[in-house]
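Hi U.,

Before I forget, here's the chain from the pilot set. I'm dumping it here mostly so it's searchable later in email.
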Amino acid sequence: MERLKTGDRIECSYAGTRFNGTYITSREGKAVIKLDSGYNIGVGSDTCRFMERPDPVGRPEISTTQNDSLPPLSIISTGGTIASRIDYRTGAVTSQFDADDILRAIPGLSGIARYRTTQLYTILSENMTPAIWQELAAAVYKEIKNGATGVIVTHGTDTMSYSSAAVSFMVDTPVPVIFVGSQRSADRPSSDNTMNALCSATAAVSPLGEVAVVMHASTSDDRCAIHRATRVRKMHTSRRDAFQSIGIAPLGYVDYPSLDIHLSPGAVRRGSREPAISPVLDESCRLLYFYPGMPPSALPETGEVHGLVLAGTGLGHVSTDWIPALKTLVDDGTIIMMTSQCLNGRVCDRVYDTGRDLLKIGVIEGADTLPEVALVKMMWVLGNEKDPEKQRLLFSSSIKGECMRRSLHGL
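Structure:
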């Protein structure tokens, strides 16, 4: 094995079957091989046979000339894999993010628009923070003011629904702002990065006029769904159609590979708003999921937070043991909003005694707002409105489509 180098072509065997592939590295007595199918496997080092050492050559040249007659789009990267490319010598997924790199990775984009790019961050999405949301909102607003026909934000999928909701509240946009990611990295045959990217660019030049998430609508490569940023949630850890609209139908679809787009009548249209930004967030807010037997001591201390979102059971309930502690928090000035863990349906605290007690002490009903969206909304409201009565009015209102006047049957 000492003679093998990264990038060598080798033959190896596994379970009695011979394979050809590219040697990546050796780990714990196993050779890590990238098969010609694109998958990585580990095999016994003693089963590998050197075949050839290719001369170092560049990737095939793909034209990256941009067409000035096409509409201008801006792409802001926060570290998602959708524009990554593979080093086939090492098998590593590497973020490459100038316009030429993107067009080389996904050449079909050049027929939809011309692009300018900004690499804001290169982080895993679980490392997102409210401070980064504010920077992202400012970057999106800047691109809109600079004349972008639409903005695409590439983002890791795990917390994309938080970030898209945050930007939706902070930025009034007259153009599409499309969040897009990739469930499967670009080195996998089942990668969704190319289709998601092409569909997101199509949505970004469409008549849409709001913040949305564009991802696979099914496990097949047939179409992407366009989800409202404040009504979408990642519902599966790994499926390509992990993202679903909750409580409403998607805003539309982009067919693939035709890239025909179909927008619903309820989607906000391009030019409906003047561009504006309200980027202040009050980070002194918390989200707490109630569970049976959860002690009142799990609640924050008096004065510890300015706002608290509760994800209660059913219609929006917590244990009656919590009522005195919650009243103390409300009396001290903490804003408390009740949402439901059920996701579908809406909070109604007028049915059972516990709910009536919650309303009596001043807990606000969150209607059908998703718990994580309610958290982002609370940060935004408390950051931008200081009058308590106006705050309560905003919490009870739909600002960016985050809550509906009535729940739709079957959703």
